[in-house]
Amino acid sequence: MTIDKQTTVTKATSPIPVMDYEGSNYRQAFWEGQGREYEDLVERVVLKQIMPLSGRRIAEIGAGFGRLADLYTGYEQIILFDYSRTLLADAVARWGSDPRFVFVAGNIYELPLASGTLDTLIMLRVMHHLADVPTAIKQLERVLHRQSLALIEYANKRNIKSIGRWALQQQEWSPFEPQPVEFVKLNYDFHPKWMEAQFAKSGLAIERRFALSHFRLPLLKRLISAEKLVKIEQSFVEFSGRFPLAPSALVTARSSHPRVAHSVGVDRQSVAMLFRCPQCGAEAFTQIVVDRLQCTACNHVYQQHNQIWDFKEAVQ
Ligand SMILES: C[S@@+](CC[C@H](N)C(=O)[O-])C[C@H]1O[C@@H](n2cnc3c(N)ncnc32)[C@H](O)[C@@H]1O
Ligand SMILES: [Zn+2]
Q: What's residue 13's pLDDT?
């Protein structure tokens, strides 16, 4: 723990299990030199096509080490939010000298961002770790306002590979069953119908649907360059989103609530207004010193340490 040993530490409140990437070398172990250029490229190309490339405030939820952060540099403020301080520290090393970036550690289930603050929300490769999707997406909806756009990816259980395995009786669970499947601890695949029902219940209205990573096959990736595969796939990502059969599905969504945009500025002095207390849910912080925020409702204090605002634990 990197927090001052002198201070009392209050754990955040959520009892929902979390896939903990603390101490992980995710960037090196999963992306660098691991033959995933195609997966990375297809996500970038599709995001670039469908997200607003500029605006006031964007946040990536579960941003990890900030793999996609270069796509956000048209924004006045860029929030990289993640549960893992280790991965955020990696993002700080790359982006910490750019004053537009705000690094935030916390748990999606008690998302420490104030309501209606985001103009654009991005979440990729995170849903598949969530044990409680309804609670998480209610939080995502809350931080949007009536003009915001959210781009959210999830792992699709009804993909061709799982259909094939199931047909050959090499897989017990049916890809057509609506319930999520936990195929490895805290790793879930979701049925598009089930996922869309959760969005609707949380007040998120889906606008566009995409299916991604159709060519996630080792042999194909060895034979054909990532650029070529993505060029081919680009032409049908939205069409195939109508009935996703790829391992990854991506939707754009808006809040169906007429919430007005929060007026918090993008300057450093406004940072207290950007956050919501994970302990009590109040949006009432005061900045007691430059790197500490106190909740005026429950008095918990959170600190910024090595450029990361840490809402995983209160320091007093
Ligand atoms: C597979 S990584 C993806 C990282 C990044 N989105 C990317 O595509 O490179 C999953 C990320 O989700 C984060 N995560 C998982 N559960 C979370 C939670 N409950 N709250 C916040 N972040 C979470 C992890 O810390 C990790 O960085
Ligand atoms: Zn509080």
A: 78
Rounded to 10°, the helix 192-201/133-142 angle is 50
Nearest CA to ligand 1 atom 3: 125
**Which pLDDT tens digit goes with each residue over 221-238?**
999 999 999 999 999 999
Domain of 205: which CATH number?
Answer: 3.40.50.150
SS3 for 284?
Answer: coil
Q: Which domain holds residue 117?
A: 10-268
C-beta of 312 in contact with ligand 1 (< 6 A): no
Identify the segments of the chain with pLDDT beneath 70: 1-12
- Tell me if the pTM is above 0.85: yes
Q: Is the CB of 66 within 6 Å of ligand 1?
A: no
Pairing mode of beta strands 101-105, 285-289: unpaired
Between strands 101-105 and 75-82, the pairing is parallel
26 and 64 Cβ atoms separated by less than 8 Å: yes
CA distance 300 to 135: 23
What's the confidence (pLDDT) of residue 2?
30
Q: Which amino acid is at 5?
A: K
d(CA 77, CA 100): 5
Q: Tens digit of pLDDT for each residue in 9-22?
A: 445 678 999 999 99
CA torsion through residues 77, 83, 87, 89, sign: positive
At 289, which helix (H) or strand (E)?
A: strand 285-289
146 domain-assigned? yes
Tokens 């190309």 label which residue? 45
- In eight-state DSSP terms, residue 173 is S
Q: Is the CB of 139 under 6 A from ligand 1?
A: no
Other C-beta atoms lying within 10 Å of the C-beta of residue 250? 26
User: Based on the structure, what is the number of domains in the chain?
Assistant: 1
